[in-house]
Design a protein that fits this description.
With 370 residues, the protein is an alpha+beta fold. The protein has 8 helices and 21 strands. The model has no long low-confidence stretch (mean pLDDT 91).
């Protein structure tokens, strides 16, 4: 296997359309790197430049220490799995998986051995004689993955391979691909727009927006310490609640004043260096039902319930605090009625702050943390 290094990589299309801007990072040997972001952010373009399907405008891409900018796709020793299975309908599963090896003039015994090994890993042994039309969507995608495995490339490239599958098959296949990575110890780059896939599969995640890398980190760090407002809103489902407002010191406590509601954050000395105007972020799971009655306590706010979504293991409550909409994830065994007034409590240590102008995350000072 091998590492993949991007050094100041740009992709600019005619008309000065910038698809990738100054990508500079490394994918380590044996790592499962997920590249995630909304449609049109440049993630697939980045992957296609590694494969050699797109030319690099500026910068260099190296695979296993070798700059591949001018190397033909067939000589890069990479294998790509596309969103479309791209199987030959007239060929059996065996022949589809063996096709690339035959084109490279591998001897028949070696082809037989590699296809058999890949089929066993992917649970396809009993389907080797079938044509693609006799397979389910998940089985066809496994054949496409198997066709890549038999080549034993230095790098595997996945371009939204699960997008055409239904929800149940997506869960099954992402588990199988993650298990495959552990078995092979291979270097994998995996592109998706689905943040759940990114969080559950990746060793690390590269999050992109408008051709620019926003943050590269492991999944939990990306979730707990987002670099900016965009990352905070993209990672996590439902998305983080965001409220613009100002911080004020009242009677020894820090109070966040949105304009239509206020919430006390306690004695937060660690926020002393923050600007007055900020964006406050709080994840739905960090809002819990509080006991009603009496004036609001520190960390509490009153919410008017508009929609209730019971999901069995959890329940989402959509409501309004003052003039702002929010979502809270609460215990499923609590009765919550539309139109009711709820008291929700947030943990002041679990809120996030962002610069109201740039969206960059503001970090509390370590000196002020108790």
């Amino acid at each position: 296997m091998a590492n993949v290094v991007f050094e100041r990589v740009w992709k600019i299309y005619p008309g000065e359309v910038v698809a990738v801007r100054d990508a500079d990072f490394a994918v380590e040997d044996g790592e499962f790197m997920v590249i995630v972001g909304p449609s049109g952010c440049g993630k697939s373009t980045l992957l296609r430049m590694v494969a050699g399907l797109e030319e690099v405008t500026r910068g260099t891409i190296s695979i296993d220490g070798r700059v591949v900018n001018d190397v033909a796709p067939k000589d890069r020793d990479v294998a790509m799995v596309f969103q479309n299975y791209a199987l030959y309908p007239h060929m059996s599963v065996f022949d589809n998986m063996a096709f690339g090896l035959r084109m490279r003039k591998y001897p028949r015994p070696k082809i037989q051995k590699r296809v058999s090994e890949a089929a066993e890993v992917l649970g396809l042994t009993e389907f080797l004689d079938r044509k693609p039309k006799a397979l389910s969507g998940g089985q066809r995608q496994r054949v496409a993955v198997g066709r890549a495995i038999v080549r034993k490339p230095k790098v595997f490239l996945f371009d939204e391979p699960l997008s055409n599958l239904d929800a149940k098959l997506r869960v099954q296949m992402r588990t199988e691909i993650a298990r495959l990575h552990r078995q092979l110890g291979a270097t994998m780059l995996y592109v998706t727009h689905d943040q759940v896939e990114a969080m559950t599969m990746g060793t690390r995640i590269t999050l992109m927006r408008d051709g620019v890398i926003q943050q590269i980190d492991d999944p939990l760090a990306l979730y707990r310490e987002p670099a900016n407002r965009f990352v905070a809103g993209f990672i996590g489902s439902p998305a983080m609640n965001m409220f613009p407002g100002k911080l004020e010191r009242r009677h020894g406590d820090v109070v966040f004043d949105e304009g239509s509601f206020t919430v006390s954050l306690g004695g937060r000395e660690d926020l002393a260096g923050f600007p007055d105007r900020v964006l406050l972020g709080i994840r739905p799971e960090d809002l819990v039902l509080a006991a009603g009655g009496g004036p609001p306590q520190p960390g509490e706010l009153t919410v008017e319930v508009e929609v209730v979504e019971p999901l069995g293991s959890e329940m989402y409550v959509h409501g309004r605090a003052g003039n702002r909409s929010l979502i809270a994830r609460v215990e499923p065994d609590r009765r919550v009625d539309v139109g009711a007034s709820l008291r929700l409590r947030l943990d002041p240590k679990r809120v996030h702050f962002f610069d109201s102008d740039t969206g960059v995350a503001l970090r509390p000072s370590a000196a002020g943390v108790s």
